[in-house]
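Section: Multi-chain targets

For targets with more than one molecule, the full set of components is provided together so that the structure can be written out for the assembly as a whole rather than chain by chain. Components appear in the order listed by the source. The example entry contains two components.
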Amino acid sequence: MAYLVSHPDEVKVVSKRFGKGATSLDRYLELDGYKALQKALTMQPDAIINEVKASNLRGRGGAGFPTGMKWSFVPKQSPKPKYVLCNGDESEPGTCKDRLIFEHDPHSVIEGVMIAALAVGAKTGYIYLRGEYRYLVQIMEKAVADAYARGFIGKNIFGSGVDLDIFVHSGAGAYEVGEESALMESLEGKRGIPRIRPPFPAVVGLWGGPTVINNAESLASVPHIILGGGEWFAKLGTPKNGGTRLFCMSGELERPGVYELPMGYNLKKMIYDVAGGMVKGKKLKGVVPGGSSVQIITPDEIDVAMDFDSLPKVGSMLGSGGVIVIDDHTCLVKFALRVTQFYQHESCGWCIPCREGTDWMKKTLVRMHSGGGVAKDIDNLKYLAENMLGRTFCPLGDAAAMPIISYVQKFRSEFEDHLNGKPCPYEKAAQPVMV
Amino acid sequence: MKFSDQLEQRFATMVTHYPTKRSVLVPMLLYIQDELGSLTEEAIHEIAQRVELSDLEVRNVISYYSMLRTRAVGKYNFQICTNVSCLLRGAEDIFEQCKKKLGVGNKQTTSDGLFYLEEVECIGACSWAPAMMMNYEFVENLTAAKIDELIEGLKKKEQQ
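Its structure, encoded as tokens over all components, is:
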């Protein structure tokens, strides 16, 4: 059971039913549930897409691609069945928001999937949950069964003549499956090896049919957009970054937690006001503002708007909304090592730059952190990372490379403090050499 | 191998959800493992036949997913997250404490078969770090005292 927090600056849209018992279908209906779906059933598919386009909703999984535009890429006529796939394989380190949506408001995801299906003309939707989220599989399966029992899903929904099926699907532990093409492979019962694109899933997706793949938070936003209007949603955020976002605040903060704030909210305020600042005795060293795969920013750079277009100005990205706050008691070489260890573990091995690059970076960082580093290692790390960038089938290679390049660029002195047999200044005891 | 009634029912329902049989594979493997403790040779053969794949093709899928295993582990599966958000809040100390208290290393089961310990990647509990999973249950905001209490409690439960 995840804990809920709140702050006066929050604008609750996606989280408005959190803690209100909305897992019960009756309660969900009392809280305006399935009204958006009924409205969407009276709308033309193009009108639904235009409403989502007007909302400036951008993919909440991390890439920030405009959701309405993604839907418009699906061909109107298709000889093969079309599908909607909800990506609930939340695995990016630092990110724990979709979990709350499934736990507290499962029907909003179902409703979002159904509206997306109406917009693109799909008859089937799948909700893929990461295997570790077993308790959520149970919640979602019950929600789907309840909705079927009332005739909200299935044949002739709400007497509209439209047939629509929704199924819940569990993964079994794999970060890479969160990448859209690997997700489809996994759903088809295979190893999660990414597919080469083009063709994009909107044209050739699940079992060869056109497929819309959206993050759970994006889909959970859709019913609110349909009811409140795209323009209303867009105005909650900043230009080109509509709406609100669930930000997962983690690290040595006084009040870590998941907060729903308008897009473009100031990061400094988020850390010092919303999350209560650093715990006593610790100072801010850096922030990874969008999950472990994005670039680090320094305390001088945190006076920045948290949206997809502002963070690149300080050399980072909004990513998945996982705000990882690093304190001055943490060794950045160790942090880099832990991040790299993760990507090395999760690399599927399909593309050589990623398979070899992550492994060599890990080996170098292990050696460096244990006191065996030499000056050349620092540039070598950067060189390895730069040679992975853009040279892999899926973004896992980029995700492993981008943070390392930024750590070396912005915290080079910490790497230099580890050279020529010097023990890590942050460790209590000497670390054994593992390589 | 014969599936239990529950698995049989799961399979019969799930297979109608997809246009191809093998699509049930990943979740079915996990459900089978939940019942048997691991994916035995017989279980792999059974599911392979049902989804019209070779045993080898099924094994090839199993080896990709970190939660699927072909060998049984302890009754209580302690999965300690040490990824960055947990690391920042002392996950390494928690992991060391578990090692000491249980007397096992990473990916080992205690001699009485009760506890299995594993260091895992992000489990999605970053804002409630440090965190772990005990079988499918999240245990969050971990402290040394919480770990002690959890382990002692489970040991006591087993003695009764």
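The domain at 5-62 of chain B is CATH 1.10.10 (Arc Repressor Mutant, subunit A).
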